[in-house]
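Structure request: Dioxygenase, Aquimixticola soesokkakensis.
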Amino acid sequence: MCPAKPDLGNHHGPQSTEHPHDHDGGFARDLPRLLGRRGMLRLMGGVGLASLSGLPAAALECVALPWETAGPYPADGTNSKAGQTVNALTQEGVLRRDIRSSFGAYSGTAKGERLELELVLVDAQGCTPLAGYAIYIWHCDADGKYSLYDFTDQNYLRGLAVADQAGSVTFTTNVAGCYDGRWPHIHFEVFESVQAAVSGEASVLTAQIALPHDVVAELYETDALYETSTRNLDRISLATDNVFADNTEVEIAQQTLAMSGTPETGYAARLTIPVDFDATRSAALARPPAGGPGAMGGRPFRGAMPPARPDE
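Returned structure:
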């Protein structure tokens, strides 16, 4: 049974002339386009499209997350900075829950408000927990800066954790800021095990998590730590973001955090991450010269690569 997911509220996915959505079609229209014929047959077990609105809640909560670019900042051994390849996954101390401070040979603490983040890893086929799988997450600080990239002498806001029997992992981190050109987000890679992560094996999913607009907008407007984020958030939308814009409404709903809190009490957020092990990934990521502006990151993939999507 799929772990329960908090109500995401009235969330609306991207709408633009380039990526239109026929909202009158609703979930019955979006789901087959998202999953494809094989995924639909597997999910429905022969049930007709007319009965999609009656699907169990677990099915609606297990829409496989789309593959996304790892961006230029993964520090997982696949990208370089100033001519040096950095792999945080092989550094002592990366397996941890609290990722607000640097670890190993580095010291320093990231700017931002505390966030207790629970991620639940499940197999999209059957929505069963992926116990023992590992997830590596990384994101920017309150100023929109990344460790091991903008700050080469820090490795905060990066960490690796192992899912328990329920598929759950918990990180203590900070609320990410919003930098110019991107919707606020968290990067992650899922691996079959910790051993797979640290040995350079391919991820089973590389994707990004979207932060909810209303919660972060209020934080950005009232907290001096995020003084540049309000302006940047006003300039971007899910419909114009160069990673999330081509996702369907149901994908966006699935990959957006359920989040609440205040700067005084701290924030809490939860997300279920369904992994489709049969996902079709047909295009290769274009990689600019190593270390150059916008250089792409991401581990090598078994088989075909995920669709190319530029990241800022």
